[in-house]
């Protein structure tokens, strides 16, 4: 299974190695600088199920 929900023109490379959900782009994925502290959307010790 493959799933992707990148925003327009994302990922755009460079030194942005982390990901955020951008509310300005319908909560699609955008690559982002890892130095910026973000908070998890959800956490589970059992893994992720899609």
TrEMBL record:
Residues 1-43 form the C-type lectin domain. SUPFAM superfamilies: C-type lectin-like. It comes from the Eukaryota. Coiled coil: none annotated. InterPro entries: C-type_lectin-like (IPR001304), C-type_lectin-like/link_sf (IPR016186), CTDL_fold (IPR016187). Gene3D superfamilies: Mannose-Binding Protein A, subunit A. This is C-type lectin domain-containing protein. The lineage of its organism: Eukaryota, Metazoa, Spiralia, Lophotrochozoa, Mollusca.
């Amino acid at each position: 299974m493959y799933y992707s929900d990148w925003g327009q023109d994302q990922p755009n490379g460079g030194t942005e190695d982390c990901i955020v959900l951008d509310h300005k782009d319908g909560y699609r994925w955008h690559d982002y600088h890892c130095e910026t502290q973000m908070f998890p959307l959800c956490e589970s010790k059992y893994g992720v199920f899609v």
